[in-house]
Specification:
Largest sheet: 5 strands, parallel
Helix content: 55-70%
Structural class: alpha/beta
Strand order of the largest sheet: 2-1-3-4-5
Distance between the termini: 17 Å
Mean pLDDT: 96
CATH class: Alpha Beta
Amino acid sequence: MMKKVVKQELDNLIERYPRLDVCKKDIEKAYILLQKTYDKGNKLLIAGNGGSAADSEHIAGELMKRFKITRPVNKELADKIMKIDPERGERLVRNLEMPLRAVPLTSHLALTTAYMNDADATGVFAQQLLGFGNEGDVFLAISTSGNSENVISACVVAKAMGIKVIGLTGEKESKLSEVSDICIRVPETETYRIQELHLPVYHALCLMLESNYFGN
C-alpha cells in the first residue's frame, strides 16, 4: 500500500495533467513494482532513442541524487568515511546523497559504438542489459512508437533474465505494450507530444520513490 505522501504525488500529477488520468492505474502499478525492486536492493535500467535517450539520462539524474528532498548518507557509512580520511571525509559526508540506483544504457559511448561496429546495432541495449542487469531488476523501456527494434530486443533479453519490463510509450498498441509487464501509454500519437507527456509521468515516479524513501 502506498504511503500518503506518495499517493499525494500521484494525485498532484493528475491534477496538473488531467489527460493522464487514463494512465493513473498503470503509473501506480509501475511505482509499486519499482518500490518492491528497490526494497530488495535491486536497480533500474533505462533505455530509449533520441529524445527518449535524453529522458533516460534525465531519469537517472533524478534518482541517483536529490530531486526535491535531502538525502544524507546514513551514520554507519558516514562513520566509515570519516575513519578512513577525516579531512576529506567531512566534505564527503556533508555533500554525498543517498542514491536510488539507476543505470541509463544510453551513456556508455565507447561500449555502445564498439558493439554496434563489431556486432549488431539492434542489440546494443540488449548487450548492456546482459552485462549490467540482474534478476529482480527493472528495465524501463522508452519508445514513443513502441516499436523501436533495439528497445524491443532489450525487452526480450530482460524477460529471459528475470528482469521486469515497464514500457513508456504513446497511446497506440505496439510491440512494447505487448512485451511489457506494465505499459504506461500516454494519450498522444505524435512523437513530440508523447514526449511532452512522458516527462511529467517519470518526474512523478521519481518524486513518489523519493518521498517513500527519504520523505518525513
